[in-house]
Every structure is written in structure tokens, then in C-alpha cells.
Design a protein that fits this description.
The protein is of the alpha/beta class. It has six helices and seven strands; from the N terminus they run βββαβαβααααββ. The strands form two sheets. It has a five-stranded mixed beta sheet, with helices on both faces. Helix 1 packs parallel to helix 2 and helix 4 packs across helix 6.
């Protein structure tokens, strides 16, 4: 676990995907500095490493946050697992700390019962950052649809926030049976 002062550390959260990667840059608990999707073609892992190197050079983060693809319950593809290892090595070579969080931890942080969909998580984050992410929330995915690449932005933002609130526990809102959470100390 990273013991950095996350209130003043610039955080680069990266969410690798089949088409590239989503990223989010956060400063403190209130500021989403930048976010986006970097699409790649050809040798996807090499191209993603180049994009991450550019992001590190541009934003000079103190910490990079990634999904822990080595967790026993991780269902990520081998290519994504290999890419995660390459990003960790790249961060180390730039003397940037790395924090890893499992999917289980992500769900436990944002959903009181530890269950919830990616879209439900994206809705929570769009409400948390309405000006930045509100218009980027893709429509709910249907069974026959591919995942919208914008979901990678929300995955990255979730990772960045987990690092910042890792010592705080979410509280379930009034017993309406939903998975909504409130964050104490995050300006809500």
C-alpha cells in the first residue's frame, strides 16, 4: 500500500482495455485534472506503454494507480496482465510509486454490499464530477453491445479515488435497497 500524502500528490490512474487505455489525473479529492481514452492499433502493448510514458512525462505523477491483475480473482486477459507488468516496470524506471487495487476492492469501496455494475459505478462518478464526466456517461450497455470505450475513463477515475479514500469506508444511503454510497469528507 502506498503511504503518500494523497491530498497533495498528483495521481495518474490507468485502466488498460482491449482498445487501448483510459486515464484520469487527479489532484486531491476534489480536482479531476484530466481524463480521456488513448486508442491504439498494431502492437497494442507497446503502443500503450508509449502512451503511458507520454502521460508520465506530461503530468509527472507521484503515484500511478492500476487494477491488480495478479489478484487471484482477476479475469483480465493475458495481454492486459502483461501490459500491467510493463506499466509497473515503466513507473519504477521513472521513480513513480505504484498502487494496485483488485476489482473486488473497487466494488467494496463504491458499493456497500460489494456488488454493482460498471454502469452503476460510472453513474456514481458522473454525479461526483458532473461538469467533467456528466456528458461522457455512455448509455447503459445492452447484452448485444460492445462496451463503450468511455467506460475506461470511469474505471480510471474509480481507481484514482480509491487511493485517496482507501482509509475511509463508504456508508450506504437510507435503506432503499440500492447500492448508492455517500462519501464523508469528499465535499458531499
Amino acid at each position: 500500500m502506498i503511504h503518500a500524502d494523497t491530498k497533495h500528490t498528483r495521481i495518474l490512474a490507468i485502466a488498460p482495455s482491449t482498445r487501448g487505455l483510459g486515464f484520469a489525473v487527479l489532484e486531491g479529492q476534489e480536482t479531476l485534472v484530466d481524463w480521456g481514452v488513448k486508442s491504439v492499433k498494431g502492437d497494442k502493448n507497446s503502443q500503450c506503454v508509449v502512451r503511458v510514458k507520454e502521460l508520465i512525462a506530461h503530468y509527472q505523477p507521484g503515484v500511478i494507480v492500476l487494477e491488480d491483475t495478479s489478484a487471484k480473482d482477476s479475469r483480465r486477459a493475458l495481454r492486459i496482465r502483461a501490459l500491467t507488468k510493463k506499466i509497473i516496470t515503466l513507473a519504477s524506471s521513472h521513480k513513480v510509486k505504484v498502487a494496485l487495487f483488485s476489482q473486488k476492492r473497487i466494488r467494496q469501496t463504491f458499493f456497500a454490499d460489494g456488488r454493482g455494475t460498471k454502469h452503476a459505478l460510472a453513474e456514481i462518478l458522473a454525479k461526483r464530477f458532473p461538469e467533467e464526466l456528466g456528458l461522457r456517461l455512455p448509455p447503459k450497455r445492452r447484452a448485444w453491445m460492445s462496451e463503450d470505450s468511455r467506460m475506461n475513463i470511469f474505471d480510471a477515475v474509480a481507481l484514482g479515488l480509491i487511493l485517496q479514500v482507501s482509509s475511509k469506508l463508504p456508508k450506504q444511503e437510507a435503506g432503499d435497497g440500492t447500492n448508492k454510497v455517500t462519501w464523508s469528507g469528499l465535499g458531499d
